[in-house]
């Protein structure tokens, strides 16, 4: 699924990486615990999380994840956005809660 | 054996739960066909110093086994020129390629033979397991996860399982110094870039970075944020060493257990403290040494083999 | 839908058999306990990978109808006992929280 579709399905906006919106992800993973995310080793995965700490960027960076969808409309602090920019990770944010964002994407065919 | 001891033994069996027959067996197998002469089996045993020869049909399916004692019997009866078929054991106790470590052990205990052929579903012979094979598999897996805390010190003294290389120099050095969690993970991020420029493949770099990150986060969360992250990366091998200044881990076995954590609620709200970090490190590294103890520094050394993908 | 319907539809194992006739009116997926306290609605099906004993306290406080522990994780016996005392149903699913959420959402739980 293209990130542009993720934007459209979840009504998200792009915080970092507009130019990369045609990147594709093949899976999604929803978690707020970074070690849980790190236990998974599939690079082409969209990380869905409720956190906005620099560690979400680091975690994505370690795993070569292309993009993060921040849920619950949380503001991404400037320094976290900057870190995402320098590491080349796309950050999207939606007002949906994790359950709803996951449900919508799953329903539209993005597998786990 | 007291009940307590056997419970402990069972717990250790778990350590080997990743080993199955196919991982333990030797795959260089010397076999004969039923129509071969008994004398050929005798020569094979002597030359290869093996104590039993599996007998297979034209499709390599196991049909029998000839052991030293059968050869001795045949010698006594003057039947060395007869075909193997006439002296071999036909109902051979064999193992399946996917049999667990526990099954293998109980097979050795029940049947008291020194060796067992390993077959696949279709009955084809794929390997042999001797007691030496089992022993060396145990030793290998002990090396892949080695923990050293106070209890070990009592028996092993100051024996060190850490690489000597770091005593002189390292290819990559990062001083961990983190107050709060803001810049936690920076060292691992730099290590990742360093490994990429060294030309290591994507997947070994990912494994090494993930483990370095887990270890670095542990220093920041559990050990006051002061420590070092170093790496040696040569000859298709990445060695990562993460050290801190304490307070140390009192019981490493417990700390390695998935889900076990001493993290505070505040840490959990920041996305850590699931108790999965060390379990991840163990899963993604090829060799792991952890040395720690109560009020001691923690030293963690992980090795990643580029060829092991 | 009821807790019973959730059990049937997500294909999870029942770890603690609480009140399965309870209504489930929404879904909530989250591993941060403070957020669940603040934001989850009573009657939710809560998907998480947390297995901490505090999960039960939070679920009871919020009025969660069923907790779905994901990714094949299991709770320690003290957690199970505590849940049983609260008549809270706990399910173990092999799926990730994403997939569990997806399955419930597709079934119409919004
Ligand atoms: N460097 C260290 N110094 C002191 N204690 C440590 C250190 N590393 C780990 N520990 C102890 O081991 C426990 C388990 O560590 P592990 O990394 O597996 O989980 P965690 O850090 O608690 O949670 P997670 O890694 O999932 O965020 C920790 O809770 C802590 O008690
Ligand atoms: Mg950790």
UniProtKB/TrEMBL annotation, chain A:
Homohexamer. InterPro entries: DRTGG, Ser_kin/Pase_Hpr-like_N_sf. The lineage of its organism: Bacteria, Pseudomonadati, Caldisericota/Cryosericota group, Candidatus Cryosericota, Candidatus Cryosericia. It comes from Candidatus Cryosericum terrychapinii. This is DRTGG domain-containing protein. Residues 5-96 form the DRTGG domain.
TrEMBL record, chain B:
InterPro entries: CBS_dom, CBS_dom_sf, Diverse_CBS-Domain, HATPase_C_sf, HATPase_dom. It holds the Pfam family CBS. Keywords: CBS domain. Residues 25-83, 88-144 form the CBS domain. Gene3D superfamilies: CBS-domain, Histidine kinase-like ATPase, C-terminal domain. SUPFAM superfamilies: ATPase domain of HSP90 chaperone/DNA topoisomerase II/histidine kinase (SSF55874), CBS-domain pair (SSF54631). This is CBS domain-containing protein. It comes from Candidatus Cryosericum terrychapinii.
């Amino acid at each position: 699924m293209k990130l542009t579709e993720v934007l459209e399905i979840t009504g998200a906006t792009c915080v970092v990486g507009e130019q990369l919106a045609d990147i594709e992800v093949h899976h999604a993973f929803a978690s707020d615990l970074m070690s849980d995310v790190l236990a998974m080793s599939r690079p082409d995965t969209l990380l869905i999380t409720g956190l906005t700490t620099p560690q979400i960027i680091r975690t994505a960076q370690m795993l070569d994840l292309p993009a993060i969808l921040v849920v619950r409309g949380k503001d991404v602090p400037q320094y976290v956005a900057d870190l995402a920019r320098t590491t080349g990770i796309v950050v999207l944010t939606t007002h949906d809660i994790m359950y709803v964002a996951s449900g919508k994407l799953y329903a539209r065919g993005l597998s786990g | 054996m007291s009940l307590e001891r056997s419970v402990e033994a069972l717990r250790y069996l778990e350590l080997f739960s990743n080993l199955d027959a196919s991982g333990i067996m030797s795959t260089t197998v010397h076999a004969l066909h039923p129509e071969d002469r008994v004398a050929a089996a005798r020569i094979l045993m002597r030359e290869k110093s093996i104590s039993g020869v599996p007998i297979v049909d034209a499709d390599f399916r196991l049909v029998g086994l000839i052991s030293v004692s059968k050869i001795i019997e045949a010698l006594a009866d003057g039947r060395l020129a007869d075909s193997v078929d006439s002296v071999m054991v036909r109902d051979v106790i064999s193992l399946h390629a996917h049999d667990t470590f526990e099954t293998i052990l109980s097979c050795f205990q029940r049947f008291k033979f020194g060796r067992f052929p390993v077959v696949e579903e279709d009955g084809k012979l794929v390997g042999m397991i001797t007691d030496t094979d089992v022993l060396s598999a145990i030793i290998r897996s002990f090396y892949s996860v080695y923990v050293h805390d106070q209890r070990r010190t009592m028996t092993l003294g100051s024996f060190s399982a850490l690489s000597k290389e770091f005593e002189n120099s390292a290819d990559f050095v990062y001083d961990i110094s983190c107050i709060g969690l803001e810049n936690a993970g920076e060292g691992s991020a730099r290590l990742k870039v360093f490994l990429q420029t060294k030309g290591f493949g994507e997947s070994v770099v990912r494994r090494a970075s993930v483990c370095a990150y887990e270890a670095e986060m542990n220093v920041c969360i559990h050990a006051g944020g002061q420590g070092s992250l170093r790496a040696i990366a040569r000859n298709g091998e990445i060695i990562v060493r993460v050290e801190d200044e304490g307070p140390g881990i009192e019981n490493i076995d417990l700390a390695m257990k998935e889900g076990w954590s001493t993290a505070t609620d505040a840490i959990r709200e920041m996305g850590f403290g699931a108790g999965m970090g060390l379990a991840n490190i163990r899963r993604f590294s090829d060799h792991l040494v952890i040395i720690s103890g109560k009020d001691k520094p923690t030293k963690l050394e992980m090795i990643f083999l580029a060829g092991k993908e | 839908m009821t807790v019973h319907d959730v059990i049937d539809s997500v294909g999870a194992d029942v770890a603690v058999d609480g009140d399965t006739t309870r209504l489930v009116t929404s879904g909530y997926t989250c591993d941060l306990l403070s957020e669940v306290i603040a934001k989850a609605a009573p009657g939710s099906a809560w998907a998480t990978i947390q297995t901490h004993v505090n999960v039960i306290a939070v679920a009871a406080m919020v009025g969660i109808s069923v907790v779905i522990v994901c990714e094949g994780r299991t709770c320690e016996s003290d957690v199970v006992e505590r849940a049983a005392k609260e008549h809270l149903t706990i399910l173990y699913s092999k799926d990730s929280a994403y997939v569990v959420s997806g399955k419930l959402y597709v079934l119409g739980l919004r």
